[in-house]
């Protein structure tokens, strides 16, 4: 499965590295164009390619949004992600450290409204990039010690696909429920955001 990653800052680049290390080909995109990704591509090797965001979305089997939440609306034509698993790894803030007030909606519900044909899953948004880089498959943790990554969504099969990738990366996939209630658990201000929890600890919070 080719994973598209839109957004190649610290977290997006880290995700690309661990995906390639786990045997997943990636196609990367950012706001400045494929040419800016040459150093990262040289590091990642032949499993990685670069494209513009729309091209990356079209080439990927699964797409991960790792851009600022404010940049998600209008980033892609909705038809490009029609019926595609779209992982919303963004976090909505109104200011430094302050969760955005979305009127009781989860931020991923808003993303789903912007891309109504996509199979939106909230995931990969709760962990600091430095932890993401070192706490997965190569960490030497036992199965019970694996840290949790979460999936929230209304499409069960889409969540299963994302859970498979989480497992490949060496983390424990934990289903937090539907996109509304499960997504709110994961987003800034929720009990699972920016907390390094094992599977058992995460399930206890849920």
UniProtKB/TrEMBL annotation:
Q: Which keywords accompany this UniProt record?
A: Oxidoreductase
State if Oxidoreductase is listed as a keyword. Answer: yes
Q: Where is the Pyrroline-5-carboxylate reductase catalytic N-terminal domain?
A: 4-91
One Pfam short name: F420_oxidored
Query: What InterPro entries does the record point to?
Result: NAD(P)-bd_dom_sf (IPR036291), P5C_Rdtase_cat_N (IPR028939), STEAP_metalloreductase (IPR051267)
Quick one: signal sequence residues? Answer: none
What name appears for this protein in its UniProt entry? NAD(P)-binding domain-containing protein
């Amino acid at each position: 499965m080719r994973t598209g990653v839109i957004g190649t800052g610290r977290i997006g680049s880290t995700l690309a590295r661990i995906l390639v290390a786990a045997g997943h080909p990636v196609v990367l995109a950012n706001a400045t164009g494929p040419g800016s990704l040459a150093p990262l591509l040289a590091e990642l090797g032949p499993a990685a390619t670069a494209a513009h965001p729309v091209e990356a979305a079209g080439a990927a089997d699964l797409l991960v949004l790792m851009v600022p939440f404010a940049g998600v609306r209008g980033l892609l034509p909705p038809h490009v992600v029609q019926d595609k698993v779209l992982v919303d790894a963004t976090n909505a803030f109104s200011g430094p450290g302050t969760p955005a007030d979305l009127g009781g909606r989860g931020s991923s519900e808003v993303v789903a409204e912007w891309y109504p044909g996509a199979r939106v899953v909230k995931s990969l948004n709760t962990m600091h990039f430095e932890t993401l880089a070192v706490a997965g498959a190569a960490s030497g943790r036992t199965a019970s010690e694996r840290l949790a990554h979460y999936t929230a969504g209304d499409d069960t099969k889409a969540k299963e696909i994302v859970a498979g990738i989480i497992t490949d990366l060496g983390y424990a996939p934990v289903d937090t429920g539907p996109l509304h209630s499960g997504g709110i658990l994961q987003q800034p201000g929720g009990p699972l955001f920016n907390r390094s929890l094992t599977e058992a600890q995460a399930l206890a919070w849920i």
